[in-house]
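question for whoever is on the cluster today: can someone run the full assembly for these? two chains, 474 residues total. i dont have access anymore since they changed the login thing
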Amino acid sequence: MKHARIRFEGEVHLVHVEEQNAVRLADGRLLAEDQVQWLPPATGSMFALGLNYADHAAELAFKPPTEPLAFIKSPGTYTGHKQTTWRPDNVAYMHYECELVAVIGKPARNVKRENALEYLAGYTVCNDYAIRDYLENYYRPNLRVKNRDATTPVGPWVVDVADVPDPSNLKLRTWINGELRQEGSTKDMIFDIPYLIEYLSSFMTLQPGDMIATGTPEGLADVVPGDEVIVEVEGVGRLVNRIVSEAEFFSARNEA
Amino acid sequence: MSRALHDVANGTLFGVALNYQGLLNQRIAEFEQAPYQKPPVKPVLFIKTPNTRNGHDRAVVHPQGERLQPGPALGVVIGKNASRVSVENALEHVAGYTIVNEFSLPEDSYYRPAVKAKCRDGFCSLGPELVARDQVANPHQLSLKLFVNGELRQQNSTANFVRNIPRLIAEISEFMTLHEGDVLITGTPEGRIDVLPGDTVEVEISGLGRLVNHIVAE
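^ ran it for u. tokens below:
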């Protein structure tokens, strides 16, 4: 089953997603995909992994890490399916990152990898955009690169754990304007989801709604205003986003 | 713990590192070398996840086999959403101030995000209360003192910030909204010390009171 959060006529609803992405409200109403505003399906902290695919680490001229490289995102950077993300003016390189996301379902502390999947609510997809112009070598990747307003699309929904029998063998793909630009498989992850839950929960308590964004394979490219960017994780979801200019984003937000 | 503070300051906890001139100056030669290459250009930010929240008179767990260090800091509680605000208008977005003790394992390096050092349960104490913005005449002239078992171990002044509060709000809100309820932890000065189970740790900031925590073994 797929679970989403949407806004409809000003109210936030928790819904089930049915065929053709129609959403079923608790009161039984069925609404089409384009009738609703899709919100991020979870709103906890996001633990995002850097350099968690060997090919991507090589692409960035890094040796694969021996310990997970995790950085944190806060809810202000999340946006939902079919929403817009802004490219700042005067930057040279803004790229997408297609990622499988594990969503935590209950508090997890000192969990062993054998039991890790019991702590999951399910899986979703994110597009972990980065503006590389703003990289600095302090707490890298720094928040100005990775925690910008509305610059981490998440969704469209959370799919139950039982519906993804083998999360370590899923195809990841990104399209820009319909053209396939990134392709990889979760089998190439360096640290898999059970390991990441064991690692993080060894020193802190993961909370329901927290997310672990598991990193991206090679195949990055620049995106510009007007581009439609789709990231897909096989069997989990296909997340659509459109890039707009800084001026367009902030004028739309001021009107809202 | 003040209920009012924790009701108002219920958003994301954003920390600023290297925001005391003395601390930055201590490391500046190192920051010209690899892996840093050059000193930071923009505020050096980190996030204390919600599991780190803690309060006045509460216990802080000393992780076994690690070194634990308190981090006395002035906390700025955001009162209304701040997106792309100017230095001149920044303070209008502040509800008030509180004391923060931003606990951490020692940071030998600033190169990678300090999740393991800073995001442990209970590692961000806030309190004892929220002091309204207009009750603090000059937030850039406050003395910070850290006491362990009654003995003064660290002190500094917010006069020594690298970036003052309006400038932090302006530079941060250029790329991300500071939301109502978020807390900006304006930095810990140089001279962090170690504390041990059994210690009582107090942070005093002039006009804001004293935030007390008790260190306990894991």
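summary bc i know u wont read the tokens: The helical segments of chain B are 3-8, 21-31, 115-118, 165-173. The CA atoms of residues 31 and 177 of chain B lie 29 Å apart.
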